[in-house]
Write a structure and sequence with these properties.
The structure is a single chain. A hairpin with a 6-residue loop joins strand 5 and strand 6. The strands form two sheets. The protein has a five-stranded parallel sheet, with helices on both faces. A three-stranded antiparallel sheet has the order 6-5-7. It is built from nine helices and eight strands. The radius of gyration is 18 Å and the shape is globular.
Length: 218
């Protein structure tokens, strides 16, 4: 299957992408991973991206699109892929369509993870990260540490990242609504959008997604 995963920040896209890719036996291709791989390997595209990032500028669409095209051409993506974070706007979506037509393939579905805005704010603003190891993540409501402000694993100090404050989250949501959300209507006009609730347990959301992605669903 060839799937695009969309949803607001805090919808759990990264978590769901990993589970879905494993269940469907297709690679999970995320924009973040594309940038990291190209930059660490010193590719021409990575050097271009690094130059923009070092200058505090957004990486142009054409660089992101070229990275995605290169990744989707690799052998493990021959029978499908799950795109996470790309396309991020209608221009990229149109470029992806053109790219796929050139390869003689098409998208099977666009999975839209739906989460109420207040829940997004609650999820992200409640996160607390360990200063000693960023892999140790807690949540003031959903996964609180045994002692407030102290990591259960190593005893390190827990803190809230600057981009996890309510004000920053609401700004990120506005960017999502303005730039990325329009691709849902773009793909809905093609009959590709499948919307599911991203509320509840991670496993329940995955089961919901797998059911919705069945060829005879809906």
């Amino acid at each position: 299957m060839r799937i695009v995963l969309v949803g607001p920040p805090g919808a759990g896209k990264g978590t769901q992408a990993a589970f879905l890719a494993k269940n469907l036996s297709i690679p999970h291709i995320s924009t973040g991973d594309l940038f990291r791989a190209n930059i660490s390997q010193g590719t021409d595209l990575g050097k271009q991206a690094r130059a923009y990032m070092d200058a505090g500028q957004l990486v142009p669409d054409e660089v992101t699109i070229a990275m995605a095209k290169d990744r989707m051409a690799q052998s493990d993506a021959e029978n499908g892929f799950l795109l996470d974070g790309f396309p991020r706007n209608v221009g990229q979506a149109a470029a992806l369509d053109e790219m796929l037509v050139g390869e003689g393939v098409k998208l099977d579905a666009v999975l839209d993870l739906e989460v109420p805005e207040d829940e997004v704010v609650k999820r992200i603003a409640g996160r607390r990260i360990c200063r000693n190891d960023s892999a140790h993540v807690f949540h003031v409501t959903y996964n609180p540490p045994k002692a407030e402000g102290v990591c259960d694993v190593c005893g390190g100090e827990l803190y809230q990242r600057d981009d996890d404050t309510e004000e920053t989250v609401r700004t990120r949501l506005e960017v999502y609504h303005t730039q990325t959300e329009p691709i849902i209507d773009y793909y809905r006009s093609q009959g590709l959008v499948v919307t599911i609730s991203a509320l509840g347990k991670v496993t329940d959301v995955t089961d919901r997604a797998m059911e919705a992605l069945k060829p005879d669903a809906g």
